Amino acid sequence: MSYFTDLTWKESIKDIIDILIVSYIIYKVLNMVRGTRAVQLLKGIMVLVVIWGGSTLLDLYTLRWLMNQVFTFGILAIFIIFQPELRRGLEQLGRGRFFGRTAENDEEISKLIGEVIKAVNYLAVRKIGALIVFERATGLNEYTESGIAMRSDVSSELLINIFIPNTPLHDGALIMQGNQIAAAACYLPLSENPFISKELGTRHRAAIGISEVADSVSVVVSEETGLISLAINGQIVRDIKEESLISKLHQELSSTLKEKSSAFWKWRGNKNNG
């Protein structure tokens, strides 16, 4: 009580500002890792903390000793495990984005989708294969690192040139982060789903594979048929029409915080029934 009795108004304001800054930083950190695999790791750490607290409260000597050893060596493990998230946070801090907004507005999304649609239509008519992956809540940095970093603004001309055959970047996936091209010629995990049609090649299996391990959205252009496909949540809709593709991209990219899988399945079912 003596602390509050001797507290001056200047010290009160300073403490309030201090608490607000720390709270905001914690919020931004949680917002940065939300939807990524780091969330599951954080849950695991919380379980260990609860076990350690229980062993201390109940005076379980052996279990408490074991937990102490885990925490002693766990600090280094945390830096190793969270290396991608830590690096991304420092990159955002360096670009001034850590304290800025994280969602793109409707105008930017519409412009982005418009450039992508122009590019895939051009490629589809000429039967030039392409795979464009949109990152959402789950980070794809481990896959962008397998390709050639670009960090370029999006334009249909650039997208087309990337996928022109016999050019250095045409083989592999292009990954979009926000409204930028993060990297091209990226390697993605192939789906091992045995029920995938045998007609689908490596490009389509990669589109499905990345959507199985992340909440990404993939647009594929077949070099055999020129058909455009959309892959979400481990499933693929083939020969999607331009209006449906634009609508789905707007829906999926406008907000990464909503659960969209049920809406996607309902839309897909209506399309198949029609």
Automatic annotation (TrEMBL):
Q: Does the keyword Transmembrane helix apply?
A: yes
Using the record's annotation, list all stretches that form the DAC domain: 83-242
Q: Which UniProt keywords apply?
A: ATP-binding, Cell membrane, Membrane, Nucleotide-binding, Nucleotidyltransferase, Transferase, Transmembrane, Transmembrane helix
- InterPro entries associated with the record: C-di-AMP_synthase, CdaA, CdaA_N, DisA, DNA_integrity_DisA_N_sf, DNA_integrity_scan_DisA_N
Transmembrane regions listed in the UniProt entry: 12-29, 41-58, 64-82
- Pfam families in UniProt: CdaA_N, DAC
Concerning PROSITE patterns, the annotation shows: DAC
Q: What class of enzyme is it?
A: transferase
So what EC number does this one have?
Answer: 2.7.7.85
Is Metal-binding set as a keyword in this record?
A: no
Which SUPFAM superfamilies does this entry report, sorted A to Z? YojJ-like
Instruction: State the oligomer form and interacting partners.
Output: Probably a homodimer.
* Family stated for the protein in its record: Belongs to the adenylate cyclase family. DacA/CdaA subfamily.
- What role does this protein play? Catalyzes the condensation of 2 ATP molecules into cyclic di-AMP (c-di-AMP), a second messenger used to regulate differing processes in different bacteria.
State the name under which the record lists this protein: Diadenylate cyclase
Q: To which species is this protein native?
A: Paenibacillus tritici
